[in-house]
């Protein structure tokens, strides 16, 4: 269990991180992807949830924003559960593509998208989710997202969905090309609506951190005790987040930060530290790769200053620890 002293220490560390980065990085912002967020550049939330349910929030953690590509994590999780690892792998790979997230490019050797964290792969993952109708598929993925976050009233923002469907030409092009190549079958527009419906669900930074904590806790939501995903599939999902979750900047992320994570063009990032906690940030200003500028800066400092890189040695880990070797490690007692 997280002690009172450690809970207070982590809160202090997160507040320092938030304060340090809140007024910086404006010059590094290339774009804000969503038109509705153009006036939200200064919104900045940082939240964490430990595997014992302890939570920390700093900044604008109750602001709701669309999941966008972060929803790919949940869609892929359900595709794995519905089809098994081997069948899913035949349809969508696990290799980083090196291309932008919306690239019209495939793994030509295996006739499949490179991975489920880019648009082509996410469209195939939506196709693989079981269900006879669009509504059934959306309902099943949404139910799984509710289990991951512990929020029973999450819904699709239908206005946002309509906007996204009206500007989906590139995703339609990817979909029709994949159907022509035999990667998917059936109604292309329904499948696209499944994918974009999940992109259009709004969450808070705190709720997103619970999704990360559920993965960190082996698939069991630490707040509700509900199992959201089998532990074996959790390993697959977190592994793909590590290798493919940060678009075409994943190599730099893995080297510099070394924490499994998934970003979305709305400005969210969710990260998973297995056995310890989930962390999430929201700030809508993006870099050229489509990743949140402030969010990345926070995670880089978590890695550099507090030793949360997956290859950091125990003596380098300072986050939530009361000294070099003493104190708990944000794990269950």
Feature tags:
alpha+beta; five-stranded antiparallel beta sheet; 2 domains; single chain; Beta-lactam/transpept-like; Beta-lactamase; glutaminase activity; disordered C terminus; two-stranded antiparallel ribbon; 12 helices; Glutaminase; globular; 333 residues; acetylation
Topology summary:
Elements: H1 4-22, E1 45-50, E2 55-59, E3 65-66, H2 71-83, H3 85-91, H4 119-128, H5 134-149, H6 158-166, H7 169-180, H8 188-199, E4 202-203, H9 205-216, H10 231-244, H11 250-256, E5 261-263, E6 268-273, E7 277-282, H12 293-306
Antiparallel strand pairs: 1-2, 1-7, 3-4, 5-6, 6-7
What does this structure look like?
Keywords: Acetylation, Hydrolase. The structure is a single chain. It contains 12 helices and 7 strands. The chain has 333 residues and is α+β, with helices and mostly antiparallel strands. It folds into 2 domains: 4-66 and 203-316, DD-peptidase/beta-lactamase superfamily (Beta-lactamase, 3-Layer(aba) Sandwich); 68-199, 3-Layer(aba) Sandwich (Beta-lactamase), CATH 3.40.710.10. A 5-stranded antiparallel beta sheet has the order 2-1-7-6-5. A two-stranded antiparallel ribbon has the order 3-4. The radius of gyration is 19 Å and the shape is globular. The termini are close together. Mean pLDDT is 92; it is low at 322-333.
């Amino acid at each position: 269990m997280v002690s009172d002293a450690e809970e207070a220490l982590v809160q202090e560390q997160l507040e320092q991180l938030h304060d340090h980065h809140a007024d910086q990085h404006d010059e590094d912002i290339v774009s804000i992807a969503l038109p509705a967020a153009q006036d939200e550049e200064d919104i900045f939330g940082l939240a964490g949830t430990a595997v014992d349910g302890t939570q920390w929030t700093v900044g604008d953690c109750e602001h709701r924003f669309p999941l966008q590509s972060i929803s790919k994590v949940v869609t892929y999780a359900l595709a794995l559960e519905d089809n098994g690892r081997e069948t899913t792998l035949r349809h969508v790979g696990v290799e980083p593509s090196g291309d932008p997230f919306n690239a019209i490019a495939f793994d030509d050797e295996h006739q499949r998208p490179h991975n489920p964290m880019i648009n082509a792969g996410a469209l195939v993952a939506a196709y693989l989710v079981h269900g006879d109708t669009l509504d059934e598929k959306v309902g099943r993925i949404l139910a799984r997202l509710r289990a991951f976050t512990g929020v029973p009233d999450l819904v699709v923002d239908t206005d946002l969905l309509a906007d996204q469907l009206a500007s989906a030409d590139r995703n339609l092009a990817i979909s029709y090309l994949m159907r022509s190549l035999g990667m998917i079958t059936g109604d292309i527009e329904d499948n696209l609506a499944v994918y974009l419906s999940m992109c259009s669900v709004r969450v808070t930074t705190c709720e997103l951190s619970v999704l990360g904590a559920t993965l960190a806790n082996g698939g069991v939501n630490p707040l509700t005790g509900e199992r959201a995903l089998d532990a074996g599939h959790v390993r697959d999902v977190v592994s793909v987040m590590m290798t493919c979750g940060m678009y075409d900047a994943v190599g730099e992320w893995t080297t510099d930060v070394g924490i499994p994570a998934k970003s979305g063009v709305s400005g969210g990032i969710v990260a998973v530290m297995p056995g310890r906690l989930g962390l999430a940030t929201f700030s809508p200003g993006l870099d050229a790769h489509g990743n949140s500028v402030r969010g990345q800066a926070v995670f880089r400092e978590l890695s550099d200053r507090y030793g949360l890189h997956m290859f950091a040695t125990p003596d380098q880990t300072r986050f939530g620890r009361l000294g070099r070797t003493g104190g708990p490690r944000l794990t269950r007692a």
